[in-house]
Each structure stands twice: as C-alpha cells, then as structure tokens.
Amino acid sequence: MMAAEVRQPAPSLLERLPPVRGRYRACVAISELAWFRVGGPAEIVFRPADRDDLADFLRRKPKDVPALAIGVGSNLLVRDGGIAGVVVRLGRGISEVTLKDDGLHVGAGALDGNVALTAQQLRLGGLEFLSGIPGTIGGGLRMNAGAYGTEFKDVLLRAEAVDGAGRVHSVPAADLRMTYRHCGAPADWIFTGCVLRAEKGDPTAIAARTREIREKREATQPVRARTGGSTFKNPPGNSAWKLIEGIGGRGLARGGARVSEQHCNFLINEGGATADDIEGLGNDLVEHVRGATGITLEWEIQRIGALAGRGPDCSSLGAGAAS
Q1: Which tens digit of pLDDT belongs to each residue from 5-53?
Q2: What's the CA gap between 244 and 296, in Å, rounded?
Q3: pLDDT (tens digit per residue) in 138-166
Q4: Closest CA to 180 of 209, 213, 147
Q5: Residue 261: per-residue pLDDT
Q6: 234-297 — its CATH code?
Q7: Domain 13-92+314-322 falls in which CATH fold?
Q8: Which three-class secondary structure state does DSSP give residue 270?
C-alpha cells in the first residue's frame, strides 16, 4: 500500500523576498501609519536602508509581488481590506538634506516641514510653501503637491527615482511633465530624492513668510484632527470647498466620518470610522455636487488597497513580525 503524498506548505511572502540591509515587517496595521488612522493590514512593510538597498530589492524580488511606496500617509486612504504585497516606506536612510553648488539636495523620505525649516536656517527663499504641506518630499513629487501659490514644479530642478526593475533614473524637472496635482513619471517609479532651487534670501522675510503660512494653515484647516488633507482637487476656475459648501455638505456625516466644519474640503475620522465610511462620504459629496452643478469633483486623496474581506490574510502571521 502506497503512503499518502505529503504536500509541503507554500512559502510565505516573507520567505520569498530577497535579503536586504533594511528591515521587513509582516502584517503591519496601516492604521498605525496613515493620518486617517484607518485601513487594513499591509502584508509586508519594507524600510530600505538607502537608495541602493531599495534598487537591489526591486531587482531581485519575485516579479509577481507588487511593491507600492507610501510616505507618511498624510494624503492617503487605505481601504479596510489592506494592501497585498510589499509597501515600501522610505525612512531615515533616504531623508538627508544637503546644500550643494547646484541646489538643495533632498531625500524623498524627508518631511516637507523639515525641509522648509532647513531652508530657513540656510537663508534660502522660495521653499516656505513646504511648511504648509503635511507630507514627504517623495509624495510631493509624485502628485506635484502645492500650497499657498507654489507647487513642486516651481522649485524642482531635477529628480531621482528607482523603477520597478531597480534601475536608477535622474531626470530634469521638465521630463516629469508636472501639472496641477499631476506628475507624468511612470507609475512604477519610486522617487528617492531631488534637487530644489536654492536662492539666498532675506532671513527676516523668509521667517515671516514661513510663520504666516503656518498660522494661516492652523487657522483654516483641521490640522489636529484625523484627516487626510485636501480631499478633492479644485476644478478649473472653482474651489472644491465652495462647491461642497454650496450643496450643504459642511458637517455632513457617514458612520464615524464627517466633513470638517472648519474646512469642508477635509474629511475627518471622528473616532471609530472605517475607510469605507470615509470613502463613502467622499463619494456622496461627489454625487451631490455633480447633481447640483454638473461638476464632477476629482479625488486628491490617494485611495488604495482592497475592500474589507478581499485583502491579504494576516491571521497566520505574527503581527509586526520582523526579518
């Protein structure tokens, strides 16, 4: 009588990934990383040690494993099912800020606010607007972020990125074809740094402009709430918040999510909201505005991941398991 065949369990995703100098974590709660404090688990989070570590990982990882870069989650909504594959989170090894002859060299993991502060300390003008953007340089490059009259495209000289095959690209700003909240870089590029225009300015004027931006932001936006920043792009010749206010959307709620009373282009997790609550509330606003005005609001917040019950199964993994 023949013995029954014993099938070996399939290797876990963590076992299939190449060795790195950085760090892997399995089954990470995205709610710990994103400003909305909602969202399902990331199957794997990878924090590369530096650009070369990231490039080597992308070259060697299995081709069927998706990799997605996120910053600090300030303009991001991860759905309740979470994210399958690998989430790349750029950190300390890709966040240096250095002034050189050709401009201010900035790592993509650097916080916009920290870059604004460094520029102020170096007496560099033109970068004060970064103090009004709650995110990282990499995220700002990917969406051509802007605030208070200035966008990334206005100060960008050159950008560096690693593509999905691990190839490093260094391109002038014009090649990125940046327009309002849009960057024409290929979807598989992960930005690792850039060079920003560095112009000496009057330190008193720079400090005053930075303070003005921060005070205005705190006075007009729910900066201490669980939010994701501006929800919708401004339609040509109009303002998203005015359209939302015009249909009575200020204060509108769905589940634990609410339209901010302070600025109605911001959605807020009041506590206990799900990603579905937030996305559903946003979609309600889109429908109400379209019905009243014929204008279709376009999401500025990046919405990613699977719906509840359709994402990665982390039940067999130890939460936060590391390699």
Answers
A1: 545 556 689 999 999 999 999 999 989 889 999 999 999 999 999 999 9
A2: 11
A3: 999 999 999 999 999 999 999 999 999 99
A4: 147
A5: 96
A6: 3.90.78.10
A7: 3.30.43
A8: coil
pLDDT tens sequence across 297-313: 999 999 999 999 888 98
Sheet with 267-269, side-by-side order of all strands: 226-227, 267-269, 257-259, 253-254
CATH 3.90.78.10 residue ranges in the chain?
234-297
CB atoms within 10 A of CB 88: 21
| Beta bridge pairs of residue 45 | 25, 87
Burial of 125 (0-12, 13-18, 19+ CB in 10 A): middle
**Hey, what are 90's tokens?**
């750029």
For the annotated catalytic residues, the residue numbers are 181, 230, 300
Residue 316 — pLDDT band, cuts 50, 70, 90? low
Per DSSP, helices labelled H in the chain are 13-16, 51-60, 112-121, 137-143, 152-155, 203-220, 240-246, 275-293
Domain with CATH 3.30.43.10 in the chain: 13-92+314-322
**DSSP H or E segment with residue 309:** none
Q: Are 303 and 77 in contact (CB under 8 A)?
A: yes
In the structure, what pLDDT confidence band is assigned to residue 182 with cuts at 50, 70 and 90? very high
* Cα distance between residue 280 and residue 294, in whole Å: 20
Residues of the chain with CATH 3.30.465.10: 95-208
Q: Which CATH class is domain 95-208?
A: alpha beta
Contacts of 11 by beta carbon, 8 Å cutoff, 6+ apart: none
Which residues are 41's β-sheet partners? 29
Closest CA to 140 of 289, 302, 288, 306: 302
